[in-house]
Design a protein that fits this description.
With 342 residues, the chain is α/β, with parallel strands linked by helices. 30% of the residues lie in helices and 16% in strands. Strands 1-3-2-4-5-8-7 form a 7-stranded mixed beta sheet, with helices on both faces. It comes from Lactonifactor longoviformis DSM 17459.
Length: 342
Amino acid sequence: MRKKLLCIIFLFLLALGGCGAQDGNSHVPVAGEEIIPSNYAKEKNWMLLEEKGQKPADVFYLYPTSWARKDKKDYPVSTIQAKNMRKRARSVAASQARAFDMAGNLYAPYYRQVEAAFILDRDQEEQMAYYGGVPKTDVIAAFDYYIKHYNQGRPFLLVGHSQGAVMVKEILFDYMDKNPEVYKRMVAAYVIGFSVTEQELEEHPYLKFAEGPEDTGVIISYNTEAPGMTEKNPTVLPGAVCINPISWTRDETPASASENAGSLIKAEGREQKLEGFADARIDKERGTVICSTVDPAVYHSSDVEHFPLGIFHRFDFRFYYYNLKENAQVRVEKFLEEWDDE
């Protein structure tokens, strides 16, 4: 009886964290280790789930880092049930995911995350190893379940920000490589708030980076900064490539704030559309999008200590919100036109 009870306790701890006990000194699984994925047959593990799928295309959305430990002695990977993660994820999705609600049916799983304060202290290789552990295990399992049970053969967009963007990259680099028939239905992948690099594109030659506003089967990616940044941006990798989210071009020609379709900014106590707020220019040397019309002291990612003043990480979506909203619809319409012609 005692042995059976100990076995039950051990399995319970595994289910909580995907690995052993929940304390800060426990081993955190990395890429390549055996990890039990969360169960995506359970509807409660989905934040957004349009089961009937009325629109002709889907959107598979992955939220940014929404998990933070209350005590640094706690385990740095969330459980799938973590209330503060789920609450924060729903809050962020209310704006980010809804930017794409006209483009397709929304699907968004809850997934276990690595805390930003834990992972951003590591070098790039370590970061990717941790991202490729528990978070990737959940995301790949969720996407596979979505494809097999909800997608019904429809075209789809992939959308993610920050840690969610890293997870979109994992789907692109791993799942799409193994499932080319699924990749054929991908309208576009919006990898916002984390870099895609020239080297990664060379290592995965089946992937294409966007060149304009209408191309399909492509990756769209950028990170937003103020002019004159010299400090390290923790979400920008060496060799990063990006696209201008106003003009949807790859060169360094500035796009003025007057050309911006609209930003979603909290002003006068409420969120509202602001026109003429944020401009955009690509800095190819840094591999980022530069916004010169916004005060960095006001729009600072101050809730994450690893982001120096002048990095607009929290506002990657918001500065170009209506550009993203319109562009997603344009790409879906273009894909469906070509899809019907085949």
